[in-house]
Fold these 2 entries.
Entry 1:
Amino acid sequence: MSDTKVMKDLEQAFEAIRSKIPFTPKVGVILGSGLGLLADRLNIEAKIPYSEIPGFPVSTVSGHAGQFLFAHTEGGTPVVLMQGRVHYYEGYNMQQVVMPLRLMKMMGIETVYLSNAAGGANRSFVPGDLMIITDHIASFVPSPLNGPNSEELGVRFPDMTAVYDQHLRKVAKELAEEMNVNLKEGVYIQLPGPQYETPAEIRMVMALGADAVGMSTACEAIAARHMGLRVFGISLITNLASGLGNGTLSHEEVKECADRAGEVFSRLILGMLERDE
Ligand code: HPA
C-alpha cells in the first residue's frame, strides 16, 4: 500500500470496480468532445459509469457522458474507452483530472490514445481537419504531478523529450494516406479555459509555436508518460482559433463540427487499433 493520497484514492477506486472489469485492456482511448461515435462502432461488452466509482470526478459539461466502456476490436485488441473526461476548468485539481487515466493503467493498459476538440491556431488548418499531436505546451496549467510523487506510478522528474510515440504517429500517417485523409501535424497547447481565448492570446500562442489550442490532453499526456505509457494524441480542429476566422466561438459550433468529423476520426482510430504493433 502506498502512503500518498493519490495512490490511496486510486487503490480505493480500483477495488470498488475490480469485479466489474471484464478483461485486461491493452489500449485506453479517451474520447474528446463529440467524438463518442467511435463507441458506436464497437461491440461494447461492459460499461462502468463514473458515478459508481468512489472518489471519481464526474463531468459537468454537456456532450461528455461519463463512463468506461470495454470492447474488443474486430481483430481482437482489448480496449477500454473513456466516454467523457473531466477538465481542470470544472473545478477539479489536476490530480483528479488524471485519475481516470491512472485507473486505466491499473486496469492494465500499455498505450493510451488521447483525443480532443481544439481550435486551429495554424493558418493552414480548416475546421474538420484532424491533427496528430507531435508535442505539447503545458506551461500555462498546473502539472498533474504536483505534490508528493507516487513512486509506484513513476519517477519524480520524468523525461518529456518524446511524449507522443513516433511509431504510432507513423501508423496514423500511413492509414490516413490509404484513407485519403489529409492529416495535419502540430503542437497542442493546453490553456485553462473555460472561456475561449482572445485574439491577443491566440497571437501569443502562435508566437510560441502552437498549432492547436484546447483545454485538456497535455496534462493527461504528462501523467501517461510519468507511468511509462505509450501515448498517441489527436486533435479534431473544430474551429479556427479566436481572431483567425470571421465569427465568434461557441460550444455548439465545436460540437457540430465534431459530429460531422466523427466518422473519419472513428475509422482512423479503429484502423490504428488493428494495425499497431
Ligand atoms: N479554444 C480552446 N479550446 C477549444 C477550442 C478553441 O478554440 N475549440 C475547441 N476547443
Entry 2:
Amino acid sequence: MIARDSQASRLVELARSAGLADIAERVVAKERLSLDDGARLYRNPELHVVGALANHVRERLHGDLAYFNVNQHVNYTNLCNKLCRFCAFQRLPGQEGAYLWSPEECAAKVRAQLDQPVTEVHMVAGVWPKIPYEYYLDLLRAVKAARPSIHVKAFTMVELDQIARVAKKPLEIVLQELKAAGLGSVPGGGAEVFSERVRAETYHLKISGDEWLAIARKVHQAGLRSNCTMLHGHIETIEERVDHLDRLRRLQDETQGFQTYIPLSFHPDHSEMADVPGPTALDELRELSVGRLMLDNIPLIKAYWILMDVAVAQLALAYGADDVDGTVVEEKIYHEAGATTPQEVQRAELVQWIRDAGRIPVERDTLYNVIWSADPTRAPAGRPAPVLA
Ligand code: V47
C-alpha cells in the first residue's frame, strides 16, 4: 500500500512539472477524464509525462504482461466504390492491380499456413456492391473448412453495412447468418474519424460516424465482440479526435463489446492525400497514450506494428499499449500506402520484440484467452487474459 501510494505521489509530482497534476490526480483515483482533459493531453508538450500517466493505467490493468497473437491477414478484394481520399489500397475494376479472390483462393491462403500456429484470420477488404451475399457466407465457410480451429475476425462495420444491403435483409439477421457460417468477431476498421467535417472532405461516400456506431451496437447485441479504431494524423483536429474517443467510450459504456482500441496512423503514399505528411513516431506514441487514458472502459490498447517502426511498437508498450498485433503474413492496405515494415513476422521474433521491450509476452487468441504465457503464474494458459477474467 505504502509503495503504491508513493508511486502515485511521484507520478502526480512528475505531472505537476508539466501542468498536469490535476489530471494525474484523477488518473490515480481512477476517475473518468473529461473531453477538456483529453485535449490538454494532446496539446501538452511533455510527451513523456503523458506517456507515464498512460503507463500507470496500463500497468494497473496488466502489470508487465504484453499480449500478442499469431494471425494471418486475407484482404479478399481491393475493389471499392467508397473512393476515400486517404486510401491507396482501393481499385476500380480494370485498374492495374485490381483483384477479387474467390472463397477457394482465400481458403488456399489459409491452408498454406497450416504448418504455422495461426489462430486467427483477419479479413478486411474494399466495398464492392456487385459481390453477392452468398460470396461472404461462402468465404467464411471455405476458410473454416480449410482450418476448422481458426477464429475468423472479419468485415468492418463498413463492409457489414454493404453486406446487409446486398443481402436485402436486416443487419440483425445477416449477423446471425454470418455467425452461423463462421464469423467469430469483427475488426475495428472503417471508423476513420467520426467528424462530419472530415468525412465531407475525405470519405464522403462512406457510412457516417453515427452509422458506424449504430452497426457496432448491433454487432455487440448479436453477441459478437469487436475492436475499434481511429485513423489519425491527416486533417482532423484535436477536438475531433477527443470527440471520437468520447463517442467510442459512450458506446462501450452501453455494450461492453469493444475488446481493444487501435489507433491507425495515416499513411499518405500513393493516396490522394499524399501531400499530407502523416503522423510522426511521437504522434503515434501520444495517440496510444491518450487513447489509454481516455478509454477507461476498453480493456486493451493495441499497437499495430505494421503501421510503425518496430522500435516504436516496442516503445508503445511503455506508452499505454498492452497488445501487439500480430504475425500478419500478407499485409496489403498499409504496404500500398508506403509502409516500410516487413509484411510478416515469425512468432519467435514477435516474442523477442516484446521481451526486448521489457515486457512479459503472453500469446492470446482473438477473444483474449491465454494460449501460452512466459509467466504462467500471472497469466495461465487456458484462462481469459487477467484483465478480462
Ligand atoms: O478501415 C486504410 C485504414 C483500416 C489507410 O481490428 C488506412 O484488430 C492509414 O481494420 N493510412 C483497415 N489507415 C485496417 C483494420 C485493422 C487493422 C489492424 C487491426 C485491426 C483489428 C483492424 O485501415 C481501414 C482504414 O480505416 N486505412 N488506408 C491509410 N492509407
